[in-house]
Write a structure and sequence with these properties.
- With 94 residues, this protein is mainly α.
- Helix content is 73%, strand content 0%.
- It is built from four helices and no strands.
Length: 94
Amino acid sequence: MTSNVSEAGGTTGVAGASETDRALGYEQARDELIDVVRRLEAGGTSLEESLALWERGEELAKVCRRWLDGARERLDAALAEDDGGDTESGGRAG
C-alpha cells in the first residue's frame, strides 16, 4: 500500500528533496500537500503508510517554504532597490 506514496514523488530521505521535489512549482507542492493532509485526516491507513505520508508532507512543506522564502527575498530586494533608487536619484522635490 505504500506504493501510492512513493508514486506521488517520493523523497531521497537523508539528503533532502529529490530531483522531482526540486522541480515542483509552489502550486504543485501545495496541492499535493493538501492531498496528503486530507489522506492523513481521513485515517484508515496503516501506521507505515501514515508515516510515509507524514514524511512526504514534511518534504512538500519544505518545498513550499523554499518557494515562499525565495519570493520574500525577491520582494525585499525589489523594495530595497526601489528605496535606494529614490534616494540616489534625489527623490522627489517637495
